[in-house]
Records
---
Amino acid sequence: MSSAAIEQHKAKASAWFEYLRDRICETCEMIEREFTGPPRELSVGRFEQQSWTRAGDAVDGGGGVISIMRGRVFEKIGVNVSTVHGCFSPEFAREIEGAENDPRFWASGISLVAHPRNPHVPTVHLNTRFLVTTRAWFGGGTDLTPMLPAREDARDFHAALKHACDRHHPDYHARYSKWCDEYFFLPHRSEPRGAGGIFFDQLASGDWEADFAFTREVGLAFLDIYPQIVRRRMNEPWTEDERAQQRVRRGRYVEFNLLHDRGTRFGLKTGGNVEAILMSLPPEASWP
Amino acid sequence: MSSAAIEQHKAKASAWFEYLRDRICETCEMIEREFTGPPRELSVGRFEQQSWTRAGDAVDGGGGVISIMRGRVFEKIGVNVSTVHGCFSPEFAREIEGAENDPRFWASGISLVAHPRNPHVPTVHLNTRFLVTTRAWFGGGTDLTPMLPAREDARDFHAALKHACDRHHPDYHARYSKWCDEYFFLPHRSEPRGAGGIFFDQLASGDWEADFAFTREVGLAFLDIYPQIVRRRMNEPWTEDERAQQRVRRGRYVEFNLLHDRGTRFGLKTGGNVEAILMSLPPEASWP
């Protein structure tokens, strides 16, 4: 592939991640304003943005923007869009497709974790990215983590993702939902992190436009279904006991992210921005 | 060394760890009863013990006892004494002294983490252990993590450990306090976990009795100085803002234990008891 074509792909991918971020932030701010349920005394949340740059030299560079809102529906929601380039460490390059002999990489992506205040509203994670080494591929996914036994939330989340997948390939949903269940699993506790979703990586079918379209579809499916779930739960009353259960589930979320998550590991190993990487950690967690 | 001598060393070491556990638990329960300061409404803590056994077969076995107290001074304190044996995984055996060609191991130790409720009382960690592969050695240490800027607490803690070290070897304190500072460090944040202490490993000087005596001395120094620090701080009043600062510091403690701590990694990799390993995590933490 010509280097001009690759540059165009990079530009299109990173522009999409920023566009998606803006739509998600708008929607979440709208939800903050719509909220009527308890607690009433908190003020409406607004996203605050913070830019960061990667320690730069001839090889390494880039940066990103963290958008964080601490609101009444969203106790803490962080969205990070970053576009970075550099060289993997020799040890890390061995683990990355296409970096075995040339450790240079370029990566752009959006990642989001929402920690709603109401324990009836599930926590959610979304991440999609475009990576370029001597090869180029998309990866990402989204998964739902109900804090209390979920009713229809998980079912509707899965249905929305299945619909999105089916528009692109008959095998995608079965394959990527299984991958998600395998990935978001805490081996030390033999328990899943949540209710699952989809997870994909190394997506390079040979048709870049199709892969990009699928990646966009995942973002749009998230943008459609998660706000629906939040809106139908956010005004439900909750008890102190349910809040305590939520803090314990959030503790498990911390365990997964720090012990097992490859994205966290990737970020910390490539000198990513610590605040951006650990933005996913919950505002409060407990190990009683 | 004769196998009878090794068996005697194992028996003496594990008996000591149990003895030390009992003295520590007694002292902490006494402190719970002495407490007069706020909050008054909580009830006096008592340790509860829970035995666990390692999934056993011809090779693997052993187990331990977790002692946990949830009290008014000690919001959560866990002490685990375990004596286990088995085979390291091939990958892990490469990292362990004396296990390169024979992956069998035997290990006994005590580990403790205290999370006091009052943010003026520092968090503390103690761990000493005796490990046997084709070689045998002691390791461990203790370190203090003040939640608020420490005044004389860190100074007195260091002085007690220096005194203990100096009774055994003129170089120990300099060497082991440096090792502690290097070990209890969060590279991703470029910050120490706390105020330090001592950390040692691979202690096999050739004089087993001397090494065992030093290991006991570390435990006794802890048993002398930490209760002094707790008693002088535990009745000091504190504010909600100081409590919030404590939760953030505790979040850093979680980050260290899950991202970096070798003891946690060792435990999870060798199929240790999850509750015992993660007992170190704080009752409440926050990433605001």
---
Amino acid sequence: MSRITVLGIGVLGSQIAYHAAYKDFDVVAYDIDDAAVDRGRARLELLSEQYVHEVEGAGAGARKALGRVALTSDLADAVASADLVIEAAPEQLAIKRDLFARVGAMAPAHTVFATNTSTIPPSALMKSTGRPERFLALHFANLLWRHNIAEVMGTAETDPDVYTSVVRFASALGMVPVEIKKEKPGYLLNSLLIPLIKAAGELLTDEIADPSAVDDVWRIGTGASYGPFEMLDIIGLTTAHHIASHGDAKQREFARLIKERYLDKGNLGVATGEGFHVYPRTPLGT
Amino acid sequence: MSRITVLGIGVLGSQIAYHAAYKDFDVVAYDIDDAAVDRGRARLELLSEQYVHEVEGAGAGARKALGRVALTSDLADAVASADLVIEAAPEQLAIKRDLFARVGAMAPAHTVFATNTSTIPPSALMKSTGRPERFLALHFANLLWRHNIAEVMGTAETDPDVYTSVVRFASALGMVPVEIKKEKPGYLLNSLLIPLIKAAGELLTDEIADPSAVDDVWRIGTGASYGPFEMLDIIGLTTAHHIASHGDAKQREFARLIKERYLDKGNLGVATGEGFHVYPRTPLGT
């Protein structure tokens, strides 16, 4: 796989496209119209500057990578010679289905199709391409040059050779490929993170302990860099609220607490300098 | 509080007694007979050597600390002038109740009583002393000089001043005091750890992913030092099996897997060099 097409040049799509180019792949980045493409180009340029500062040894390579990304709003052009198409479109079933139906009709026979969806089971999308055996989920984390994991999740219909080729691609991209053997909502990271966050939320809503106590215990007791409330401050309390408000009664109580104590005061987490904690923060335990 | 009495000189009791002496408290360490006291003395001497190697700046102070621990198998002597009694006896309700009843009858009026129990709610012990308002739980982690948290948990009857004095004592001991405002089984650490371990166990029993994939995701995705299976290997698979076998149907399935794949082969975790992983281990993601 050497020719990669990324559909959607938003926050994560731009990171995938840029990083693939940085790792010497030929990349086509597609978005729906010229305005979206222009916004995508600006994102890629910002990433190039960010790599110079944050990625060891990036230097001139960070600038050069930009030259390996072709941008277009023409979908047929975008996928004409794609070995791998990675979809990073908005998280709506209808949009993704429509997009996969169109690229399925246009792409060469050998193309592999991957969705970066966080919340839609890949089996709900696999038939749209008309080639379910060449379809799977390839899920990146935000700030992928730092959190370099790529969760690879097939469906019951994914061809094992296709699966293996995508695992190999993820490695070539400098990601640690995480193989998920069966379809699992939330992949691995959220399957682990959500029960922890849920337990932490209950300690707060039940007035057992405050966020500092919980975070101190977690860091010192397990050797973690962050406690659960610090993680939520990093993820952002808007997202934390969104997840909790879709949970059970206890979690919805936690969602209300997040809204009343933090969101309504404009405290959204690290991004605004305050959430469960005030930042920058010197934890007690260090 | 300057005179501390520790009841039980086992694994954790010896750490509490030694560390309090190392931090300049006058310590009495009690155990039930001369043989138990001798074993306790040997533990304290080993700790003194361990501090020289592991605790920065310990040096001669590590040896000196031994001189501040008086050992005895006479309970009346042990508590005669105690400001704080910390119970670290075997984890059996009858033993602890009997012990608190006896020290409650012998100790001075100003004595504060603390249990280091991991699993018994302090309210089940508070009446034994005859002074429930002077009773609470003070829970240390194993290897307390490294994992320096002390969870402080009162009951509905604990006097707030007593609670505050124990929080202050924990700080003076160099612990990060973690204040738990209401009685909560499992304190904070296990309240957080068990849901995470449970979720990880399900990913394995449901054949979604193997331990390496789960641990890679957790470390890289959250910045933790260890993934959940690495934590279990550190805790030890005998303990992991014990906890899981007391859980719901899913957890009992995980307990069976631990027994069949690991315990029955003598692989108990880091202690035996192999558990979910083989040690020493170089994680993929680093």
---
Amino acid sequence: MRRDALPENMPMPETPAPCRIAMVIFPRMTQLDLTGPFEVLARMPGAKVDLLWHHIEPVKDAQGLTFTPTATFSTYGTPDILFIPGGPGVLEAMQDEYLIAFVRSAGEGASLVTSVCTGSLVLGAAGLLKGKRATTHWGAIEQLALLGAIPTPERVVVDGNTVTGAGVTSGIDFGLAVVAKLHGEEKAREIQLQIEYDPHPPYDSGSVRSASPELVARLKRRSAGITEQRRAAAERIGRTLGAPGSAR
Amino acid sequence: MRRDALPENMPMPETPAPCRIAMVIFPRMTQLDLTGPFEVLARMPGAKVDLLWHHIEPVKDAQGLTFTPTATFSTYGTPDILFIPGGPGVLEAMQDEYLIAFVRSAGEGASLVTSVCTGSLVLGAAGLLKGKRATTHWGAIEQLALLGAIPTPERVVVDGNTVTGAGVTSGIDFGLAVVAKLHGEEKAREIQLQIEYDPHPPYDSGSVRSASPELVARLKRRSAGITEQRRAAAERIGRTLGAPGSAR
């Protein structure tokens, strides 16, 4: 899959090497965790992106947007890139034995193991993050340790063949980092210009470091229920993995 | 639909006023033009987002991602917010008489008329941008004049009840601007933190002002065919609208 950047004067081969990208989907995922990276990764030479679920039947994201799988866990085989989005549905996905078995097997064979947002907790639940530096949504960052990972609160974290992105919109930064890793900086710059990625957030409120403490506290209170459920699940799964962070 | 920001100590009503958001979809749209704004707008209080197409049948974006409409042009009625994404398929959408008739009618009744990327050319083709400041993808900015708009190469442009975003990823900035307009700055800051919108582009290559002239020229060459087709269509449609920019 990997193709190093070609010298300027060498023509691109007409048919680039195929790159099979498996994006796992599940009910109540956060769709932008998936669609941001999709927009970037699908523009790589040779990219063949599939959305994977148990069956070929529509899956609704947390806000009700419908996605249609193009492949199933049982028939897809091994991807070049494994990708997992996050969202409220991660709580169920972490505990879905068949989904986790696919993620483990696909992740062991893939060239790159990747996620955005709380998707990293699914990678962790499959035992793929033991001893690895990884990131996730700010509201879940401590929970990575329960699954044996080293929580690293950065926007995009690369550790060997593992690439994880922080919350939701980090998927665009994540995607460009993957493109640069596989195809070089010039291809990443090209895709960045195609998608006019010149962000101008209207406020400085996008991270726990910049938002007001009151706002951070309010959002933490509002998601306290699901955060606690996910923590308990991560702790239980971490114990079965023998993850040191889960020890009492 | 519009609810001004409530005083800090006033409880939010339990059932927020509904806000019907009509997002037009079409084959070969660029899905992130749609999914970025969807993620932000669907989090507004009372948001009821529909994807609209001629029929309830799957529509594939330019990279093959499938979307399922939830409503049709003939039965939806008038939205509170009309939204149009862009993408290569804009060339056909601009010339789709039934789609354009819906956009014109919905836009005349909507509280907000909006687009991201080349979606503004669809608004323009429906006669909704005459004399209005508007933006679009950098590769199409001059073509807005052919449809009677005032090309304004900024990330998000607000002119009265018209809000347009530039290329693809601008949809997130656009979405937050719409939230701020309808629900105030604090709600926009809250959604910004939920989606961890603290962008860190790996390169400074996201606009024609920052990318290298060689890269801009290469991308312009590569899209010259579709750019010329779209220009010719805009010029022809502009003449039927009596748009001054289309005069020879």
